[in-house]
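Figure S4 source data
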Amino acid sequence: MERYTLGKNERLKSRKSIERVFKEGKSFSNFPFRVVYIMEASEATSSLQAGFSVSTRYFKKAVDRNRVKRLMREGYRLQKNSLLATLKKQQLSLVIFIIYTGNLLPEYSDVFEKTGSIIKRLIKFAGENIEANS
């Protein structure tokens, strides 16, 4: 039975790790999201960490920023299992940071759909990463 959790060890909280993602990571956009990630081979267990952010430029109230982040985390939590399975199979480690760049409060269905397309794109990148290393 699959578990749809987003535990403490799956959240990107370390300041060093976040700075590393922005310095060394690759990025792509899928409006209204911008994704910055680092994917690398890991000898031990494969790991997946994610961070979420919303700009204060468009959302002045913390209530609105927290709402958008909650929607992002929920959409990610329910769809990340396929990405995690791919990473385990390929023995990869992935650190991602997802930034909401839109200026309107999103609907959950839109966030869920876009998060799914982001995860599919990351799965595709994982497949390409293995082919490049072979």
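Figure S5 source data
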Amino acid sequence: MTENKAAFLKDFPLSIQQDVIWGDMDAFGHINNTVYFRYFENIRMAFFERSGVNTHKVATQVGPILASTQCQFRAPLTFPDNISIATRIADLDKLVTGEKRFTMQYAVFSESQDCIAAKGEGLIVYYDYQQSKSCPVPANIIESFKALK
């Protein structure tokens, strides 16, 4: 299960670091399972900010909505630790104009354990908030995703 951090990071176009927070531990002495979804949300929003998704959504009312998410727990996180949270779009090369959805992959790397503590995915659907229906991912957003690769 051990993976070199440099190898971990080269597989993902964007990562952020943060400390594990003591208050996020549960009665069993490890980080509660719900917190991992917050980690995924943190990196997802950092990716959307970096790629211009958030700016585009404000300007057009067209943006992403999380349709589903899942997590695979691989090693328990505990306080204290520093983690790297990373993301990428699965099959980015296959994401073309007209697609309405894509899958983001996430991973959480534990510094103290020198391993991936969790992996997950989120199905993202593009959504027109004014018309209340799904819509294609804008071509400029797809290009922005590919530029982060």
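The CA atoms of residues 4 and 114 lie 7 Å apart. The mean pLDDT is 94.
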